[in-house]
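Running log. JK asked me to keep both predictions on one page so they can be read side by side. First protein, sequence followed by its tokens:
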Amino acid sequence: MTVTEDPAVRGTVVACGAAGQRAAAGAELPVTAAGTRPGKPEIDSLLGEYDRLVVAGTDGDLAAVVVRIMRRERLADVSLGYLPVAPSPAAARWQLPADPSAALALAAGGADTAVPLVRDDTGGVLLGAARLEAVKGQAYCDEQVAFDGEAAAVEIAPDDAGVLARVTRGRFLKRTATFHGRAFQIGCLPTSSLVIDGIPAGREITRRTWYRHTADLRLVRG
């Protein structure tokens, strides 16, 4: 039974920005207009009214909604659908339909399943991918040293176990090592290169830790 067929399940499409509102046109569920990367004023009231939120937006918009669900401790009882409006590492990882109509139908009426949720030590989440470039420092994936010195690029993404990290070293002869674990932590010289789910961090960082959260995300994926 789908969410639209079951009157006990209440859902809304959170249309983030102009692109999200265009993508949500024709949705069977009610549409709630929101800004890009919506926060507490826009999302928290919906968590008391709906059991399913379908986010029409970018990976950054989706992450902003998940942060509110996590902070309100509603991960166990709110399912999340996703209608990406731009190329999406998160949608690719979850194998969501590329066709917008199919993606909207699935997000509104499909079944949810538990998927690992990766968060960080600043209270944010990671759904698609994070990337740093030209960093100097040290990083660990669980107990294993990922690099000690310089790295041309570091990419972090969720996987089925928790966190996947790819470290690329070398200026001319590039070589990449892949690590899997529950957590990935980096300490480095100040860098402003961090981009998380398509959103620049906006300030220099010297350390960051990503790790699998204790609760999973209820994702609608079929």
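And the second, directly underneath as requested:
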Amino acid sequence: MAAAALACLLTATACADEKLRAPGSEPAAPRPLGDRERELLHDTEQALLRQCMRQQGFRLWKVPLKPVPEQREFPYVVDDVKWAREHGYGSDIQQRADRLRTEDPNRRYFEGLPVERRAAAKAALHGRDRRGGPSVTLPGGGVARRSGDGCTAQAQTRLYGDFARWFRTKTFTDNLTGLRMARVSAEPAFRKAVKDWSSCMRGKGHPYDDPGQARRAFTAPAAGKTDAAADRARSAEVNTAVAEAECARGSGLSEVAERLHRRHGERLRAEYREQVNERLRIEQAALLRVHGLSSSR
């Protein structure tokens, strides 16, 4: 989910063509990536990872960028009635994702290795020690670290150039999504809209104080339920999600959330312009490397 929200944050940095800049003004922001370009970088990194692991004597299978394409992000409230009628809160999608994780050939391969061999494979993939690798202080506080060795670091170095620079920039900007959502949720206008949404839901027979409470009521695992009980739970989930989407539109919560989401996206891009543009520059440079990397593999 965080990926699409982040793409939205980065995409809005697009600006006028370089030729339209006034003399002496700041350079135009780097062009954000499109969906196909993001997928190309992902696929290239996956190929580099597999190549590196093969050289270390291990196997690795490609992980798709979007394992379940139907998965959608609703950071504040479900507001798509059609999607809600088909997926409810997405429990069917989550079940598919869970099955994919269980059947993941990489997981099965690692679990099937002898203990010592498994440890060696994990070290080859992720590196051995984070203490000597790059670190970054996150925008909301806290520090993230990453090992500077292993195939992940090697693949990202080949694709993005300076691994430490890429790790710091990507990790920092990835964390802007959560900060943005927290700022939106703290807005008085958002809180009032949530109360209006709750009143609408109660009028439809769904007494929930906020969308998160409604969603949590339908995220319990279905394991152990009879078919009849599972069908009833699914029907209740879909009915509640549809009501949520209708109330999101009718109460104004959807419009308020979208407006505040844009506002805080703009503020964060201004506040962290250097980091956001740095990531875009690194990604654009990586696209130029892809052809050479493809011909060298």
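Observation for JK regarding the second prediction: The chain has one domain: 2-11+31-296.
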